[in-house]
Amino acid sequence: MDNFATFVQFVDQWAWVGWLVLIALFLVIEMLTLDFTFLMLSFGSAIGLVTDFLGVPVWVQVLVAAGAAALFILFLRPPLIRRLHRGEDPTKSNVEALVGLRGIALQDITQISGQAKLSNGDTWTARTATSMPIPQGSPIAVAAINGATATVRPVND
C-alpha cells in the first residue's frame, strides 16, 4: 500500500506537467484538423492546469477539466464555427453546380443508358430518374450526379 501512496503523491506533485503535455498535444492536433474540437479540449486542459495550481486533488482536476472542455465544445465551438464559415462564397461549385443545370438529350435516355449535353457544354453519360425514357432532343435537367453519370429528368417548358 505504501507504493500506491507514493505513486499518488508523485502524480499529484507532477500533474502540472501532464496538463502542459495535454495542452500542447491538443494544440498540435488542432493545427492538423482545424475544426475547433481539440482547441476546446486544450482550453479544458488549461482549466485543469489552473485547478492544479490552486492545489485541488488530481481526480477533481480531471473532472473539472472534462466538464470545462464539454462546456466549451457545446457553447463556444458552435459560434466560432459559424463565424468562421460566415464569409464563405455561397456559389455552388463542382458537382453541386451541375444539379439543376439544363441540357438536351443527345440520344434516348433510359434507366440503363443515354447521353446528354448540358448547357455548360459538357457531355455526360445520363440515366433517367423515372421509368419513362426521355427521347433524343428533349430538354432535360440534372437531378443528381452519381460518379460520372448524370441522373436527369425531363423538363416541360
In short:
Helix content is 52%, strand content 19%. The protein has 157 residues and is an alpha+beta fold.
Describe this structure in words.
It contains four helices and five strands. By secondary structure, it is α+β, with helices and mostly antiparallel strands. The longest helix is centred in the first third of the chain and has 32 residues, at 2-33. A hairpin with a 7-residue loop joins strand 1 (102-107) and strand 2. Helices cover 52% and strands 19% of the residues. The protein folds into two domains: 2-85, no CATH class; 94-154, Nucleic acid-binding proteins (OB fold (Dihydrolipoamide Acetyltransferase, E2P)). The mean pLDDT is 93. It has a five-stranded mixed β-barrel with strand order 1-2-3-5-4.
